[in-house]
Structure formats: structure tokens, C-alpha cells
Write a structure and sequence with these properties.
Number of helices: 14
Family: Belongs to the CdaR family.
CATH architecture of the largest domain: 2-Layer Sandwich
Domain PucR C-terminal helix-turn-helix: 327-381
Order of helices and strands: HEEHEEEHHEHHEEHEHEHHHHHH
CATH superfamily of the largest domain: Reverse transcriptase/Diguanylate cyclase domain
Protein name: Helix-turn-helix domain-containing protein
Domain Putative sugar diacid recognition: 3-135
Domain CdaR GGDEF-like: 147-278
Radius of gyration: 31 Å
Strand content: 5-15%
């Protein structure tokens, strides 16, 4: 494994602060890659090369300095990675006095190598996983399916197992970081994903990863694929996740797609889950679960061509003219199935205020949503159109 100069130099600087001895770290070619004497970095170290060839420690004493040009007394010992010599540690001083220090430096360097190798393996696996997930969502030929199945098996995933897509949005990522000064977004993200992976209902065949800064995708395995059992299994899985967090209060919005048996079903399930996240945000849902099967109307709306939306709904939206009060009233009425009392409670206003606003909506759109089903649907469409196409940051997945 090739040594990283930046990490090696950081190690040298930290150890020298505590031990006080000059330290050199040489790579497997005998070239100095880190040193207390920066001028020596990049130069060849003859003794180090000899140590590498012999795989033995070489001590230089004061009376040996004349034998080797530019070499001071000290200890030069090999360090290993995977039972192979990876380089040489050189520490200046009387060998008997620096014995323990040299051993500390060697152990620290080998530990650094192990940690770096682990990071690289994790990064490689995550990179492969990211590309793999992207392939799952974009493949559209039999050949792509075959290669993706093979790729999945290398990563440890059996694509013959039925799965449904679940999207999870961390709704309070910024506020968590503000409340916990020792945390940053990356640490919170890592905590949330690791916590999900550690729950009882999450298994090794569940494919999970971040798709944006605050959204996680999970291809959740299923035992049964009928809609009733899919919802039951996902509900148990999500409840398990929600109850697993400790001191950190994490608000999660879940969007769950439906199961599709074809090899291209992942993308369909993903689009449904994404639509549910968007709809949840639109309706100001917090810490809730949105199942696509429960929101067919919203799914159908999301699939309608925008040009048609503009043509048929645009004139209505112009009448609202970004009136927040009317939009909030529309939302409350839709959310509460046109129940005036519940809508007024949601908005903390008197029932008569809701009646007044409803009358304004009836006059504005020439509809009667309280008594006409078609008009109720039209009001819902107008509201969805306004929020989907005029509210920013709705489709960040």
C-alpha cells in the first residue's frame, strides 16, 4: 500500500511534539516522504533501502556516522502492512535511548496504514454502491439487468429478492447541528444511517445509501408482495427506526413506493416514494410516513404533463396570486376533508373566518367544494399545482 505524504507528515509532526526526536518516514522505495527536516523530503535514504532489501532493522551508532554519508546515529526499522514491508521508520538519537520511541513510531505508522486502508475500502465500497444504486434506478435493457444482477452479487446483494423503495428525509438536519455544537452535518448523517442499519428489522439484503445531503434511499426487502403485507412490513420497519434514536431528536419523513415485480420496478417504486416525500413537504407533514398506495390521487397528479397543468390550472392559480392566507386555508380544508371546524383549529382561527375564506374561494374559482365532489377535486388540483410548481425546493431528490 502506498503511503500518503500528508498523513505521514502529520504523524511525524505530532510525534515529534511529544518525543522531541527527529523522525523520517521512508516509502517502499527508500524515498523520504515525511520528516522533521522538510528539506530532506523527496530525497533517497540509502540505509532505508538496505533495511527494505534485508527486511531487518539497522542501528547506526555515533562511530558509524563516517561510514555513511549524511547519516546520523539512530534506529532504522521496517514497518509492515499485510505482512509485507511497506517502508522504513528512521529516528535520530542514541539507539539505546530511543528504543521505546522507535517502537512507538513504528506501531503508530502501522496503525495509520490500517486506518487509511480501512477508509479506502469503505470509500471504494460506498462509491461502488452509489453507482450500483444509480444503475438500479436507470437500467432499461435486459443486458443492463443481467450486468446489474452480477454487480449486485459482488456487493453481496441478491436482486431476485423482492424489494420496495423507501425514501427517508431528515427534516431537522440543520437544527440538530445548531443544538449540538460538537456535531456537523456529516456526523449526523452518519449517525442516522448507521442507526437505521442497526435496527432489528434492517437486514444485510436491504440496500441503503444517501441520495442527497438529507435524503436516504432504502431498497427494503419483502417477505410478501401483496399490498396489505407490504404496508404491514414497512410500517413495522419504520416504527422500529423511529423508536431507535436516543438523545438526538431526529425528525424523519418517510415516503414509501409500491412493489413492482418487473426488473424495472425499482425506478417506478422510487418515483412513487419521491412523490410522497414531495407531497409530505407540501402538506407540512412532520415525522410522518406517506405510503404511495394511500395517495393515489397525488401520484396521478404528479404524472400529468406540466404543459397540460399550465393550460388548465394556470388561470385558476393566477387568481390566487400567491395569497398565503388563501393557500393555507385551501391546505387546511383539503387536509381535514372539508371539515370547517377542524380546518379552523389547524389555523387557530374562528370557524366564521374559515367560512368567509371558503366563500371567497367559491367566488374566485366559481366552485362549491363543500357540496360538489368534482369541485373538491378541482380545489385539490389547484392547490397541488400551486405548491408543486411555484414553491421552491420541492424536488431536490
Amino acid at each position: 500500500m502506498l503511503l500518503n505524504h500528508e498523513l505521514a507528515q502529520k504523524l511525524v509532526d505530532n510525534i515529534m511534539k511529544n518525543l522531541g526526536y527527529n523522525i523520517n518516514i521512508m516509502n517502499e522505495s527508500g524515498v523520504i516522504i515525511a520528516s522533521g527536516n522538510k528539506e530532506r523530503i523527496g530525497t533517497f535514504h540509502k540505509i532505508a533501502k538496505e533495511v527494505i532489501n534485508k527486511k531487518l532493522r539497522i542501528d547506526i551508532y555515533e562511530n558509524d556516522e563516517n561510514k555513511y554519508e549524511g547519516v546520523k546515529q539512530g534506529i532504522n526499522m521496517p514497518f509492515y502492512y499485510n505482512n509485507e514491508v511497506a517502508g522504513v521508520i528512521g529516528i535520530t538519537g542514541a539507539p539505546k535511548e530511543i528504543e521505546n520511541a522507535a517502537e512507538i513510531v513504528r506501531m503508530s505508522t502501522e496503525l495509520m496504514l490500517e486506518q487509511q486502508a480501512l477508509k479506502e475500502r469503505v470509500y471504494f465500497h460506498q462509491s461502488q454502491k452509489t453507482f450500483f444504486i444509480n444503475k438500479l434506478l436507470t437500467m432499461n435493457t435486459d443486458e443492463e439487468w443481467s450486468s446489474t444482477v452480477h454487480w449486485g452479487s459482488k456487493l453481496g446483494y441478491d436482486l431476485n429478492i423482492p424489494r420496495v423503495v423507501c425514501l427517508i428525509q431528515i427534516q431537522n438536519l440543520d437544527s440538530i447541528v445548531k443544538k449540538n455544537p460538537l456535531l456537523n452535518k456529516e456526523k449526523v448523517k452518519e449517525y442516522v444511517l448507521n442507526n437505521i442499519k442497526g435496527t432489528k428489522k434492517h437486514n444485510k439484503q436491504d440496500i441503503s445509501s444517501y441520495v442527497t445531503i438529507n435524503k436516504i434511499i432504502i431498497f427494503k426487502t419483502l417477505n410478501k408482495t401483496d399490498s396489505e403485507n407490504v404496508k404491514k412490513e414497512l410500517r413495522e420497519y419504520i416504527d422500529n427506526i423511529k423508536s431507535s434514536f436516543g438523545n438526538i431528536e431526529v425528525e424523519l419523513l418517510f415516503g414509501v413506493g409500491t412493489y413492482h415485480p418487473s426488473m424495472y420496478g425499482y425506478n417506478k417504486s422510487y418515483e412513487e416514494a419521491k412523490a410522497m416525500i414531495n407531497y409530505g413537504n407540501l402538506m407540512n407533514k412532520r415525522n410522518e410516513t406517506m405510503f404511495a398506495r394511500d395517495h393515489v390521487f397525488e401520484l396521478l397528479f404528479a404524472s400529468i404533463d406540466k404543459e397540460k397543468m399550465d393550460y388548465f390550472l394556470g388561470p385558476f392559480v393566477k387568481k390566487v396570486n400567491n395569497n398565503d392566507e388563501m393557500l393555507l386555508t385551501m391546505q387546511a380544508l383539503i387536509k381535514n376533508n372539508m371539515n370547517l371546524i377542524k380546518a379552523s383549529q389547524d389555523l387557530f382561527v374562528h370557524r366564521n373566518t374559515i367560512v368567509f375564506r371558503l366563500n371567497k374561494l367559491k367566488e374566485m374559482f366559481n366552485i362549491n367544494p363543500l357540496h360538489n365532489e368534482s369541485d373538491r377535486l378541482l380545489l385539490h388540483l389547484i392547490y397541488l399545482y400551486t405548491k408543486y410548481y411555484q414553491t421552491k425546493d420541492m424536488d431536490n431528490v
